[in-house]
Design brief:
The chain is an all-alpha fold and 153 residues long. It has one domain: Four Helix Bundle (Hemerythrin (Met), subunit A). Helix 1 runs antiparallel to helix 2, helix 1 packs antiparallel against helix 4 and helix 2 runs parallel beside helix 4. The chain is built from 5 helices and no strands.
């Protein structure tokens, strides 16, 4: 498996979201490293961390786009829910003893990059506008800070 490399075209222009996306890419790359590690427990830990972090990212992103008034928030949430179900199915297959790493790595890479290029880029203008207005109104914290602490402490 080739390691995933971040491409600047994936940047949404929303620093907090781009940072989270980069972290997910790093975690996907850790899957391959864990596959080569001597203990299967390492793979299970990486997979669990990837799933947990991704679900936290989804919750944060959904709260952000809802707060910004993005018109397609409900559809975006459905895309996340379907993806979460798909990844959970992979996790169950792994727990049942199936070797899913190569297939999962490939699926994650395709899905994530396509999702960012399409779905996430679609909301970026709305969110950036909202954050700019919000930042001016709440220069000393507010929604973004509260939710960063809430989801990523």
């Amino acid at each position: 498996m080739a390691a995933l490399e971040w491409q600047d075209e994936l940047d949404t222009g929303i620093d907090v979201i781009d940072g989270q996306h980069r972290r997910i890419v790093d975690m996907i790359n850790q899957l391959d490293a864990a596959r080569r590690a001597p203990g299967a427990e390492d793979m299970s830990l990486v997979l669990d961390e990837l799933v947990d972090y991704t679900l936290s990212h989804f919750a944060f992103e959904e709260a952000l786009i809802e707060e910004a008034g993005y018109a397609f928030t409900a559809a975006h949430k459905r895309v996340h829910a379907l993806f979460a179900k798909r990844v959970e199915d992979y996790r169950l297959r792994y727990q049942a003893g199936e070797d899913i790493v190569a297939e999962l790595h490939s699926m994650l890479a395709r899905w994530l990059f396509n999702h960012i290029r399409g779905d996430d880029k679609a909301y970026s203008h709305t969110v950036k506008q909202h954050l700019n207005v919000f930042a001016r109104q709440h220069e000393h914290g507010g929604w973004l800070r509260r939710n960063l602490v809430r989801f990523f402490r």
